[in-house]
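Below sits our specimen:

——
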Amino acid sequence: MTDAPSTRIVSLRVSGMGCAACVEAVQAALASVPGVVRAVVELEGGAAEVEAGGAVEATDLMAAVERAGYEANPA
């Protein structure tokens, strides 16, 4: 029997998004981080929820969002 890789949920607050294209850009940036399984971003409320492997740090995710041109902080 093999153990399933352990994942966790990281919640972020994202600012600077104003449209659906912004949401897609942030979601793509988060999904591009190695170890991310799933990223869901909501325009209203500026929330992002990321399912990622244990080696992924919130700082990695925030840096990816910032490279995409937005600001992210831990929720």
